[in-house]
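The record is kept unedited without comment:

——
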Amino acid sequence: MMESGVFYGGNKVRMLRLHAGIATQKELSERTGISPTIISDLERGRRGMNPAWAMRIAEAVGTSWKTLLEEEG
């Protein structure tokens, strides 16, 4: 889903987190410094991803930040 030019990629965030062996949203929050509420909202598609969060999450899960901003297809 696109809104205001920002992709809502919740399912992608969750899948990458689990693939990286990060079992909980809390653990991802601790690794990225992003609040657990924001991580939860991102995974549920209730909040738009921004480039700063994408870079921090990508580093934690071992992927390119651009991957988090690309539309799933």
Q: What stands out?
A: The beta strands are 2-3, 6-7. The chain has a mean pLDDT of 86.
